[in-house]
Design a protein that fits this description.
The complex is a heterodimer. Chain A is of the alpha/beta class. Chain A is built from nine helices and 13 strands. A six-stranded mixed beta sheet of chain A has the order 5-6-7-3-8-9, sandwiched between helices. The chains are: A alpha/beta, B mainly alpha. Chains A and B meet through β5 and α2 of A and α1, α6 and α7 of B.
Chain lengths: ~325, ~400
């Protein structure tokens, strides 16, 4: 997993006065699931469009290093599931899948056979001749997903693959993505469902306002978080927090219910000292620790960046 | 897969999206059945025209009519019946008509229903009257024919191209024009529904990640143009089937002599297919800038190729050998319509047709590149539709 298959160097894209992507650089390694995260308007889709050559960066370079050794990949080497997506609604599903496969370099027979085999896998084999519009939304998503990867790409870009899926289908797609990775497909993933990203991603890049906020493995990302630990303390109802709430060890207190509080402990503060303090001041009924979630890191990082931006603009 | 194969695959997809064998067969079958119905109708009417017509003549002494031997009329003098009795007989369909001679020059015809044979009867009565008058004036038939010969003037034009066209040629030219308009309409529908449909269904981004905008638009132009050409060919074949069925059943349908000339047929095919390609480059480019065909004001722009074509066709019809028609034969936007009309109604030099086709090919190639540039931006543009200025900027920028 140490061969770089995609190198993005200082790409920049402006639309009139708005900078959508601002000198962004990153690498993607062969066989990994690389998650590109960010709030709406962070520049994820623009970045993906530049990776695929749909639009060109104003400056910077995008270079692939896939099988053919060419920095611009052949369409057969890349699969793409766009966020803004759809397929032909009035055309039989297998016909559409075959067409998509052919556009990606498969011959008709192979594309048709791949389409059939994927439809079997997602339990839609008996609907191969039906029009897309006759399927449920979840099943339409499955067909859309198949259309992006049926040509066995080396590199797949999946933009919001879980959007609109129920938990069962989300799990189903996670399994498929894992399976693709096991078979050697490198995956660049964009998703808003942080808990799903945590289950899949090897590395994460967090974008905001077109710039990199955080990047690295999940462990490295957690190291960047302001708070190192979260301690969940259950107390009797309406317990008095006066003696603990101003402690310099605490970054933030979150009230989950009348009898449950979450204390975010600042990085570097010894956990045992907080536990002593909590035990002596709160008379806790239960105490346990929780990992800082990607969601929290995401919200925190984006919040800090937006606050910094506001300050910059005011000054 | 080669770049060219991708274009052909897209063209095949576009073509097959619209081409339905069943529809074509139905068109052909309708033409053949229509031909049969027309031929049968004509046959029935002809048979009716051969049925004998029995007419009783009252006051025959005023004009002693004799029924010619080759006539289907039987003119019998009234044998004692009164006018009222004979009128009743007409009402009961016992006789087909009662001819009451008021003088040697006029008569009244009493019938139960509108007589299809009235003109035929008039002609026979006129001839009979002439025969009787000639006999009384002592003029021979030959003398009368000689007197009646009209003065003959033959018009000879100084240029062969000014030759007058026959009705058959005019009808043929009009049919060719209709075929071309059918092709334009099919192209318009195909491009508009295909492109705006893909934009609305959000298929564009996934396809543009696999193929270049130029490949995609090339495939669309090729596929929809061929569909329009095949559709036009099926209509032409249906018309030909209709004519052949009519001819098989003995109906006289004139086909202009120009259609037996392989050169004319070749130029007709090349100019119509070339025209479809040319118009489709324009239609694809404009359609890519439309988000919703139901609400877009841009949709009316798609009808732009029709306007010069129709104007060109009218001028070519009226003055096929004029300088204006010549110029419009060379202009790619009008040549696919004007050239076929002139080929049928007038004389077109080989170099004129060859030059028109060459200009059509070159301009189609250039239009194709321009369409690719507009398509590249238009297909990814949602929301506000670009203005003409903006599209020109894309052309310059790309």
């Amino acid at each position: 997993m140490n061969k770089t298959v995609l190198t993005v160097t200082s790409i920049e894209k402006r639309f009139e006065k708005q900078t959508a992507v601002d000198k962004l650089s990153f690498d993607v390694m062969k066989g990994e699931v690389f998650a590109l995260l960010g709030p709406n308007g962070a520049g994820k889709t623009t970045t993906i469009r530049m990776l695929l050559g749909i639009i060109q960066p104003d400056s910077g370079t995008v270079s692939f290093s896939l099988g053919n050794g060419n920095p611009t990949p052949h369409p057969s080497q890349v699969g793409y599931l766009p966020e803004d997506r759809g397929l032909y609604r009035d055309i039989p599903i297998l016909k559409t899948l075959t067409y998509m496969g052919v556009l990606r370099g498969l011959d008709h027979k192979d594309a048709q056979s791949q389409g059939r085999s994927w439809l079997e896998r997602v339990n839609l084999a008996d609907r191969a001749g039906d029009k897309l519009e006759t399927l449920s939304k979840g099943n339409q998503q499955k067909v859309q997903f198949i259309s992006a990867i049926l040509h066995r790409p080396e590199f797949a870009i999946l933009d919001e693959p879980f959007a609109g899926l129920d938990p069962i289908n989300q799990d189903f797609f996670i399994e498929i993505i894992r399976d693709l990775r096991e078979k050697g497909t490198t995956i660049l993933l964009c998703a808003h469902q942080m808990e799903l990203v945590e289950r899949l991603a090897d590395r994460v890049l967090l974008l905001n306002r077109g710039r990199e906020m955080l990047s690295g493995t999940l462990a490295q990302i957690r190291d960047h978080a302001t708070a190192a630990n979260k301690v969940v303390v259950r107390v009797r109802e309406n317990a008095d927090l006066a003696q603990i709430q101003h402690s310099p060890m605490i970054d933030q207190i979150e009230k989950r219910s009348a009898s449950e509080y979450v204390f975010h402990i600042k990085r570097g503060e010894p956990l045992h000292e907080f536990l002593i303090l909590a035990a002596s001041t709160l008379e806790p009924i239960d105490i346990h620790t929780e990992k800082i979630s990607l969601h929290e890191i995401f919200v925190q990082a984006v919040g800090n960046d937006s606050a910094d931006n506001d300050k910059e603009q005011k000054s | 897969m080669s770049q060219t194969r991708i274009v052909f695959e897209i063209a095949r997809w576009e073509f097959m999206r619209w081409f339905k064998v069943k529809g074509q067969l139905v068109t052909l079958a309708v033409a053949i059945v229509s031909g049969l119905v027309f031929a049968a109708g004509e046959h029935i009417l002809e048979q009716k025209d051969k049925v004998r017509v029995n007419i009783v003549v009252l006051n025959q002494e005023r004009l002693p009519l004799m029924t010619p031997t080759d006539s289907r009329f039987t003119l019998s003098p009234a044998s004692g019946e009164t006018e009222a009795d004979l009128r009743v007989a007409v009402g009961r369909h016992e006789i087909d008509g009662l001819l009451i001679l008021r003088s040697a020059d006029e008569a009244e015809l009493v019938v139960a229903k509108k007589p299809r044979w009235k003109a035929e009867l008039d002609q026979m009565l006129t001839s009979e009257r002439q025969r009787i008058k000639m006999a009384t004036m002592n003029i021979s038939t030959e003398q009368l024919i000689d007197v009646m010969i009209p003065f003959k003037t033959t018009v000879i034009y100084d240029q062969a191209g000014q030759k007058p066209s026959t009705i058959a040629e005019r009808i043929a030219a009009a049919i060719l024009l209709v075929f071309m308009l059918i092709g334009i309409f099919y192209s318009l529908g195909g491009q508009l529904v295909s492109i705006t449909g893909e934009k609305q269904l959000r298929v564009t981004e996934q396809i543009l990640s696999a193929v270049s905008p130029q490949q995609w638009v090339d495939g669309k132009i090729l596929g929809v143009s061929l569909f329009a050409a095949v559709q036009t060919f099926v209509f032409a074949l249906s018309t030909l089937s209709f004519i052949l069925v009519m001819q098989v059943f003995g109906q006289k349908v004139a086909i202009p002599i120009e259609f037996s000339n392989p050169w004319v047929i070749l130029v007709l095919i090349l100019s119509s297919v070339g025209g479809f390609f040319f118009w489709n480059t324009f239609l694809a480019a404009i359609a890519s800038t439309i988000n919703d065909p139901n609400s877009s004001s841009r949709t009316s722009l798609l009808f732009l190729p029709l306007l010069p074509s129709v104007i060109g066709a009218i001028i070519a019809f009226k003055q096929p050998a004029s300088m204006l028609s010549f110029i419009m034969t060379l202009l790619p936007i009008t040549s696919p319509v004007v050239l076929p009309v002139r080929l049928v109604l007038s004389e077109v030099a080989w170099w004129e047709a060859a030059l028109a086709l060459a200009l059509l090919v070159v301009s189609t190639w250039l239009m194709r590149i321009a369409a690719g540039k507009i398509f590249r931006v238009g297909m990814l543009m949602y929301g506000k539709e670009p203005g003409l200025k903006e599209m020109l900027r894309w052309l310059k920028k790309a």
